[in-house]
């Protein structure tokens, strides 16, 4: 085989945080690196464009972090949000490595700032990117280009040649590209509605995708079909209730609504279906996507009155308003009498209490099914407002199994000779379910950095645990 | 079922139903989008000021627009900038609002139209100024005086008596100051700035420091993003050369005035004397600075530019450059027969510069400094609870 065909040491598929961390880290190890980003330059980076912070352990406060966040506390938080559904050794490894990410990522040109207005609760645990995720991406791309990483846009991989767990080549726009090692960092499959339908049926047609339109799961599918071991529950995805007026893709964080706890939520028959005041909002927002997905036509309406309008962060779209409940129902396309009856029934069940949106207060309903157990106040002060909501999918959990060196494991448990994975495509190793803000970027950054380093070492034949197959690959 | 609400209609809206212009309505829409995101709050003063508000009437938008230094960072950092359908282009829209605001606050209001065709207006003013001085000199003097070689103290005043010069330039300066002051009053009222802010010395000092260092022309620390998403501090450097060059030239003139009246020393002064040194150093800054700013403007990402006001930007840069160029040429040629014409050209350019100060890009510095005072005051109020 002519040697010029194997001109790259490391091929990185994907263009987000994980991919760029891998590319930079591989390049710093001396590898020749090619990055294949399926999108054009504007949309590059997939879901990283919509992120704003990264959760890293640290032992002391910094200029942008208000206090320490120990490895142990991070681990406890992870155990709590995943209800223990995590690869504990891998999770501990990631958390340990996250400590050096804060300085490493800064060395790659990314800048921090104190936590954003309206996110003070994350000021101690999460490091915020100055200018947000796209600014962070731009810095990583600049650094990668300066270091000599080659980047191709609109380069969607359509086939992978994998023999006995060893990556040989990738097909891009009809061209076959060879490399000695592969880093798969191409995201999940949440924007592939057909794939989502396998688990959700026709309801998936009404899902909105909060992030990129490019996470079709092509690479994940190709890897799984080539005998890679899968991890994570395929039916699981991170879903929240977002404004129904949001675009199908890339509406991002600004389509979120933080007002469920202040009102009632009804379905298209104007019926309530869940306790809106079950717990404080940060602990409950991630269940509402699933709840709305289970309602007819996957649509619901948050109804509240004038007294609540300024209690939550301003949102992208103005609420729909009317001077009467019946008028509001008409604007929403609901049966006016039905909504009137639901609101009246709710108002009659509200018990006296002292409203306090900072704590689990004593404002609750009595004799109502389902009950509203906190922050229940009568909806009576005009004008009345509504936000229509639909399920908004953030990401999927199904992925490729990896070890601590980000090496992809094959179905029989053996590590692949030269394939690595980082980011959303392997997030299911750490996140069996649930989510904690900023942890997706931790997974991408930490495992991207490791994957790039190990892929470079594999390609250059000096990886300590390099398998025979890997050595053969470098001899080609 | 109101299907129109869903799937089809993803257009976002502003916070206030009525605005004076389409640009203001668009700015309201953008601030509403930005206020639900806030990723850019660490980049400059505009976004923290935005976060103190939930609704954006015209006065507030004019305040925010003048607070924006047009560094471009928020455009490149934004996940919703075009071609995203939310079409968030804050630098461009605020540039339009800001440029419209100069016309909105101008005194007298009848002259608002000069901002629309500002390049033409300034060019005519400059041509008129230069022509008037040359014709005046030619009418008053015979060719021997106009094209003669004059040296020693009072050489300039053989072509134009000192008192005439002072009267003419004093009058035009006074006019410019009055017109600008009336513009300031209109702006300050419209942005609903509290009376207290203008006498809050701590806020004023903070604004002086922020304006003097161009604190918010740095994309949050790395430099402004003019050509593309790669930051560079070049614009700030050229603006410093321009501004401080201008101030040194102003200091040169002021020093010369003091020399004349207090010490009885008449221009021209030897090359090593303070007015000449200040003017020469400032003049060099005022050549390099505007040239660099103009070059940066040509290289700027087209999507960030308010193309309707390019003429105004270029005219102001050109006037500063010509002021310096003619001044330095006068210095070089002052002992030759070309001095008479050169003096007429220089005085003509400077006269036009002063006369058009309230009617061109010069006012950007005034309104931006005021916006910075307001911002400093708001921040102080906020931090004091």
From TrEMBL, chain A:
Give all residue intervals belonging to the FAD-dependent oxidoreductase 2 FAD-binding domain.
Answer: 9-431
Name of the protein described by the UniProt record: Tricarballylate dehydrogenase
Q: Which Pfam families match?
A: FAD_binding_2 (PF00890)
Q: Which InterPro entries match?
A: CobZ, FAD-dep_OxRdtase_2_FAD-bd, FAD-oxidoreductase_2, FAD/NAD-bd_sf, Succ_DH/fumarate_Rdtase_cat_sf
Q: Name a GO molecular-function annotation.
A: oxidoreductase activity
PANTHER family, per this entry?
FAD-DEPENDENT OXIDOREDUCTASE 2 FAD BINDING DOMAIN-CONTAINING PROTEIN (PTHR43400:SF7), FUMARATE REDUCTASE (PTHR43400)
Q: Which SUPFAM superfamilies match?
A: FAD/NAD(P)-binding domain, Succinate dehydrogenase/fumarate reductase flavoprotein, catalytic domain
Q: Which organism is it from?
A: Enterovirga rhinocerotis
From TrEMBL, chain B:
Membrane-spanning residues: 120-140, 166-188, 241-262, 274-298, 310-333, 339-360
Top-level division of the source organism's lineage: Bacteria
The record's section on InterPro entries has: Citrate_utilization_prot_B (IPR012830), NarG-like_sf (IPR036197)
Q: Which UniProt keywords apply?
A: Membrane, Transmembrane, Transmembrane helix
Put simply, this protein is called: Citrate/tricarballylate utilization protein
Phylogenetic placement of the source organism: Bacteria, Pseudomonadati, Pseudomonadota, Alphaproteobacteria, Hyphomicrobiales
């Amino acid at each position: 085989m002519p040697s010029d065909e194997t001109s790259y040491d490391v091929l990185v598929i994907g263009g987000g945080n994980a991919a760029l961390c891998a590319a930079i880290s591989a390049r710093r190890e001396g590898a020749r690196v090619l990055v294949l980003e399926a999108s054009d330059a504007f949309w590059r980076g997939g879901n990283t464009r919509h992120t704003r912070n990264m959760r890293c352990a640290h032992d002391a406060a910094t200029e942008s972090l208000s206090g320490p966040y120990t490895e142990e506390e991070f681990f406890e938080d992870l155990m709590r949000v995943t209800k223990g559904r995590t690869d504990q050794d891998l999770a501990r490894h990631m958390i340990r490595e996250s400590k050096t990410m804060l300085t490493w990522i800064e060395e790659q040109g990314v800048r921090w700032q104190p936590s954003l207005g309206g996110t003070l609760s994350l000021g101690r645990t999460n490091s915020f990117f100055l200018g947000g995720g796209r600014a962070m991406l731009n810095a990583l791309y600049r650094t990668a280009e300066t270091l000599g990483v080659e980047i191709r846009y609109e380069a969607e991989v359509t086939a992978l040649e994998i023999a006995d767990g060893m990556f040989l080549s990738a097909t891009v726009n009809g061209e076959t590209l060879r490399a000695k090692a592969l880093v798969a960092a191409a995201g999940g499959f949440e924007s592939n509605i057909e794939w989502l339908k396998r688990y959700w049926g026709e309801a998936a047609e009404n899902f909105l995708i909060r992030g990129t339109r490019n996470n079709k799961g092509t690479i994940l599918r190709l890897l799984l079909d080539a005998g890679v071991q899968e991890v994570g529950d395929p039916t699981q995805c991170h879903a929240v209730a977002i404004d129904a007026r949001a675009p199908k893709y890339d509406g991002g964080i600004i389509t979120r609504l933080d007002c469920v706890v202040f009102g009632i939520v009804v379905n298209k028959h104007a019926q309530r279906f869940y306790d809106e005041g079950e717990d404080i909002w940060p602990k409950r927002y991630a269940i509402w996507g699933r709840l709305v997905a289970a309602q007819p036509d996957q649509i619901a309406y948050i109804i509240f009155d004038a007294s609540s309008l300024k209690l939550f962060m301003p949102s992208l779209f103005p609420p729909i308003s009317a001077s009467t409940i019946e008028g509001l129902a008409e604007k929403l396309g609901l049966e006016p009498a039905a909504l009137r009856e639901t609101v009246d029934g709710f108002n009659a069940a509200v018990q006296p209490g002292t409203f306090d949106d900072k704590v689990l207060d004593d404002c609750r309903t009595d004799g109502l099914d389902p009950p509203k157990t906190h922050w229940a106040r009568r909806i009576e002060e005009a004008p009345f407002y509504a936000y229509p909501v639909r399920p908004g999918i953030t990401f999927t959990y199904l992925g490729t199994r990896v070890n601590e060196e980000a090496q992809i494991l094959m179905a029989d448990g053996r590590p692949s000779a030269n394939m690595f994975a980082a980011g959303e495509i392997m997030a299911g190793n750490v996140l069996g379910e649930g989510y904690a803000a900023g942890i997706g970027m931790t997974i991408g950054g930490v495992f991207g950095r490791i994957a790039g380093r190990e892929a470079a070492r594999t390609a250059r034949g000096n990886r300590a645990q390099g398998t025979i197959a890997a050595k053969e690959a470098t001899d080609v | 079922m109101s299907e129109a609400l869903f799937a089809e209609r993803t257009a976002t809206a502003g916070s206030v139903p009525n605005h004076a212009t389409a640009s203001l309505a668009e700015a309201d829409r953008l601030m509403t989008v930005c206020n639900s995101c806030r990723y850019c709050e660490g980049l400059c003063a505009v976004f923290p000021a935005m976060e103190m508000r939930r609704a954006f009437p015209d006065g507030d938008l004019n305040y925010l627009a003048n607070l924006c230094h047009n560094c471009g960072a928020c455009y490149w950092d934004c996940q919703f900038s075009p071609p995203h359908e939310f079409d968030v282009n804050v630098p461009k829209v605020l540039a339009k609002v800001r440029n419209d605001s100069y016309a909105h606050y101008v005194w007298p209001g009848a002259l608002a139209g000069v901002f629309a065709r500002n390049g033409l207006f300034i060019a005519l003013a400059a041509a008129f100024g230069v022509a008037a001085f040359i014709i005046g000199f030619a009418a008053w003097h015979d060719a021997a005086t106009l094209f003669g070689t004059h040296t020693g103290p009072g050489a300039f005043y053989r072509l134009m008596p000192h008192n005439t010069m002072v009267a003419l330039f004093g009058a035009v300066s006074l006019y410019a100051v009055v017109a600008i002051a009336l513009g300031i009053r209109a702006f300050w009222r419209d942005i609903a700035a509290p009376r207290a802010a203008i006498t809050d010395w701590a806020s004023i000092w903070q604004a002086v420091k922020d304006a003097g260092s161009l604190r918010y022309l740095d994309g949050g620390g790395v430099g402004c993003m003019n050509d593309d998403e790669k930051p560079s501090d070049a614009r700030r450097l050229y603006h410093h050369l321009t501004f401080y060059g201008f101030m040194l030239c102003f200091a040169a003139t002021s020093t010369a005035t003091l020399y004349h009246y207090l010490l009885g020393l008449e221009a021209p002064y030897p090359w090593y004397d303070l007015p000449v040194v200040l003017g020469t150093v400032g003049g060099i800054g005022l050549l390099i600075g505007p040239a660099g700013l103009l070059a940066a403007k040509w290289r700027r990402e087209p999507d960030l530019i308010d193309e309707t006001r390019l003429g105004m930007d270029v005219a102001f840069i050109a006037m500063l450059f010509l002021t310096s160029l003619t001044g330095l040429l006068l210095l070089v040629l002052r002992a030759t027969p070309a001095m008479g014409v050169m003096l007429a050209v220089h005085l003509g350019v400077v006269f036009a510069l002063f006369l058009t100060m309230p009617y061109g890009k010069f006012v950007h510095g005034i309104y931006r400094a005021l916006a910075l005072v307001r911002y400093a005051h708001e921040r102080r109020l906020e931090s004091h609870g």
